[in-house]
Design a protein that fits this description.
This protein is mostly helical. It has 3 domains: about 90 residues, MazG-like (Helix Hairpins, Orthogonal Bundle); about 90 residues, Orthogonal Bundle (Helix Hairpins), CATH 1.10.287.1080; about 50 residues, no CATH class. Helices cover about 70% and strands about 0% of the residues. It is built from 12 helices and no strands. Helix 3 runs antiparallel to helix 4. The longest helix is centred in the C-terminal third of the chain and has 25 residues. It starts with 6 loop residues before the first helix and ends with a helix.
Length: about 280
Amino acid sequence: MPNETSIESLLEIMRRLRDPQSGCPWDIEQDFATIAPYTIEEAYEVADAIDRNDLAHLKDELGDLLFQVVFHARMAEEGGHFAFSDVVDAICDKLVRRHPHVFATPAAKPADAAAVLVAWEEHKKREREAAAGDAPLSALDGVARGLPEWQRAVKLQKRAATVGFDWPHVDDVFAKLHEEIDEVRAEFAALGHAPDADVARERLEDELGDLLFVAANLTRHGGVDFGGALRRANAKFERRFRRMEVLARAAGTPLETLDLAQQDALWNAAKAEEREDRT
């Protein structure tokens, strides 16, 4: 095994982990499907380190994510499909192809980052058209089904907007949001006396899905990342809830022994402390 720190070292480590005779039993048993959830998890760990501005942790998490790429490439090589070098070649070719303003025609340099995104999507569209041949194309082609559903919702909305299917103003999104809330409220009200509970829950799920889809659209219109907003909300809730527990213990009353009004008072106290810390 190479001693120097390099991508070759990592590839050799992966080869040895997957060696059928001397490798790790767990690594040998894995396949693309079993490793995919870990790949997604590591990507989220990278995002979490960035959110917390923890650059030391980010270094480790990027390494974990790189290992996932190497793991998938090793399994593909074992199956005779492609190797890690093919993955590198493919992404290099794609980046050069989609950045002609950098690598081919500097005179055609876009005016700003927004124009770069427009050109990028146009390159992707031409690639999809070339791959499809004579088959009919949809504006929604290429939106991966393996994405987290909130992320897929935003991508579907963006693609639909490229052909003009979009609300022209954020007030239209708010109106639709209120409409969906009313429909969800109606389905909740119907739960208690519906003749078929399974059908009632399915209808509620359908309306809740519509509500969440519109909420994703609202973040898009506001230029806010849905996942980032939800991560911030989760972090805020966790931070305040943990502070509630501390305040309750300091008062000699475990949180679970308090009624909802008392717990809510601790929540408000935690919020007030945060406001004081910001001033």
